[in-house]
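User: For my dataset I need records formatted as: sequence, then structure tokens, nothing else. Please produce one.
Assistant:
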Amino acid sequence: MRIFNVFEVTDPNVLFSKKENVIAFFLFVILWIYLFLRGIHLPVMHDEIATFYFYVHTGIVFPPEAHYDANNHVLNSLLSHWSYQLFGSSPLALRLPNILAFCAFFFGVKGIAARIEHIIFRWGFLLSVSMSYFIFEYFSETRGYGLSLAFLVLAIYQYIKLTEDEKTKHVIFAGIFLWLATCANLTVLVSSVILFGLMFIHSFLIDYKTNKKRLIYKITALILTGLPFLILVKWSFKLKELGLLYYGSLDGFYPVTVKSLFEVFVGSYHIWMAVLVTVLFGIILIFLVKDLIQTRSLLKLIHGKNSLPLLLVGSVLIINLLALILEVNFPEDRAGIYLFIYLSGAVAFTFGKIAKQYKWVIPVAVLFLYFPVSFIVKTDLRQASFWIDARNSQPIYDRVTAMESNFKFPLVVGGYATQELCWYYMNYRDGGHQGRLHWTNHPGLDTDVLLICPQRLPEIPEINTYYDSLYYDRAADLALYKRKKFLKKTLKICQDVDPIQDYNQDYYTLMQVPADSFINKTIFVGVEMTLDAEAEPFIARFGATADQSEDPKTLAYEFIQVDWLRKSWKGEPNNFLQGTLIHNVPEGSETISFYLWNQYFEPFSISNGKCYIYELERDF
């Protein structure tokens, strides 16, 4: 068929046959369709929605204006913001940049695999990397890791091409791809340093005597594409200064990096695994040294076919030096995800060469088989393999919104802190009429509805006395419980809110009352008002506090984030009806305050409103 003429192999460096190319194409199509469907159905997770609310939703992506946090994978935030503007706030729209990045990722992995000399190891590498579930999941989420890996493998592929035809364009492309990869994930800085070093050394050795003009072009390309990395280096030092490079620890390369990578890629960690990876690493290192001794050529040592072994060895060395000298944490699971690709590729290239002479090493390729088999076993559009307590459930949210309440305000829902943002997001997509997720005292007995992970049910042994189990969502591993009898909420205070017009200061007090009658009691503080603000989103927070006046101190604090509920507040009558529990007003509290914190000093108006305090009559 003529359609398959595109798979004709014309590059002598490409070892894929026409038939292999066709198989790879259909593998990609199947994987991408599955990925696209996962992007629609996979429950949203905390880190995704943190990215949405802090960067995508606000459009404030670049430091220093952007909220400082390691969660800001800048390229991902920017592309997701553009996708959000074009296609809206659906999970698929937010995830689309990463879903599309899988195309580039597969192309790069296939291009690298095409240089592996033995067909079994060639396909072992392609299948293990493209069908590793831990890597694959990041392409179906609004995170930076999928984008970063896509551009990283493209950069490696360009380096391999550079060593094959010496064209300057490969230096330019590699530098750009490394920049994009690092903008998506700062941990790729280590790999970028290694690849820039390899490109410089290779260009110098190949062109210094024979083609100085081309050498100048290449060095110029390296400088121009390398200079922007100074911004990322500065940013990484700023994050470290602020204590935001918190992921991982200094407990050691094996206890942190090796252990965590085995746990996420294989599901467990045992001492024999550490021995296995050490042996493989040792063999790879020995063959690099052997190549250098036999060829007596640094140029041949740093050829593209040795790029992954060199990246593996170099990354491990630099990671340990950074920990020793600068006290940079050893990378943990996703922060060191690229090491899996380097190890898989290094094993495939090294043993692929060995297998040409020693057929008995071919069974080593069985190690690769685990990943496609595991991928097939785990296939599920709604099931993720990690962060069980950091996701929420759309089916559970829909059931809660369908419940009736005998209270003026939305149902009081209890859940985990790591699920709060997901709850806000589902509420935001639904118009922002539901309440916040209460997590300060979770799991407790004072909320109308409870969201709880089954494995944590022992933390609340009385749950079956006070609540009925309504639903369990397997994909989110989350159960919904509803109170058999809602706690009675007695109105104690109702106070008008003073109207305000075009107020642009930081804090505006809505209500402040004595706390003495509420000590050691659970109260619900609510506000009903007409809010008008030009800014979209209007970034503000309603806070409820129990305060001590002498030696001023806040003893209890709960809040509702306005822009997480709704983007636009245009003065619709009584458009804000929200409240929060203060689970137990602490002793020593003198005042209960409810205020609005106008975080970006944007003008707003309140034309009318009332504040309420209800006391919950406990039955436990």
